[in-house]
Amino acid sequence: xIDTPFRFESELSPEDYQKIxxxxxxxxxxxxxxxxxxxxxxxxxxxEAIVAIFPLSTHQRLDHMKKVxxxxxxxxxxxxxxxxxRVVMTGIxxxxxxxxxxxxxxxxxxxxxxxxxxxERSLTKAEVFCYRGIDQLRRxxxxxxxxxxxxxxx
Length: 154
What we know:
- This protein has helices at about 15-40, 45-50, 60-70, 75-100, 125-130, 135-145, and strands at about 105, 110-115, 120-125.
- The protein is mainly α.
- The chain has a 3-stranded antiparallel β-sheet.
- β2 (about 110-115) and β3 (about 120-125) form a beta hairpin.
- α1 packs across α4 (about 75-100).
- The radius of gyration is 18 Å and the shape is elongated.
């Protein structure tokens, strides 16, 4: 019989799995909302946005929003929200990607770590679960509507 490669499963508590799930779902929702906001800023239809916006990464969407805001201007509170959202999402993306796209390996000094081979970096369980990324995601969700010229869909 072949041993299962999923030896890490017992190392994560139900609460750990719940936090990972919340992080993933909130990220996906906020990413979708950011796409909708860019769609509104560019005055695109849903069909056009599916082709032009939704294939973009979160970073690319936020970068385009910054460029469009520079061209067309935003109210001061919306510009502040966009600037803050860009910073917050960069930090959260670091942790989110290092969890969602990682493998869990047993490190000799750190114990079980989330290892992202493509970036050659690891985060310990303590770094992941002590991180306030989920709380920041919750707060970011409130920032996004302020950026939209028309908050419908945001």
